[in-house]
Structure prediction request, 106 residues.
Amino acid sequence: DPQKNYYVDRSGTSYLVVIIVIFILSVSDSLFTLYHLKRGYREINPVLNAFLFNNAYFLIVKYALTLVGISALALHKFFVFVKELVIILIAGYTLLNVYQVWLYLR
Prediction:
């Protein structure tokens, strides 16, 4: 059905909330990551690991990749499986942040 997959130029207010939630989870993850790196942990993402020589570069790359990704999701919000992908992304980021908090409290 050609009506199932179409692009949008405005994602709407409710989707803006989804984008903000994903970005907040990403910011939280990055700050916890920097904290844990100081405690001797390591970054397992090879792309982000390459930028750890400077915290500012790490944060810029992390946020840029996040913004590109959520912009692509917003553009494709009416494509098949994008809603499910967003749910999986939010759930995954939430679990990652819960894990980061657990590490922090240990």
Summary: The mean pLDDT is 91. The helical segments are 13-38, 46-49, 55-75, 82-105.
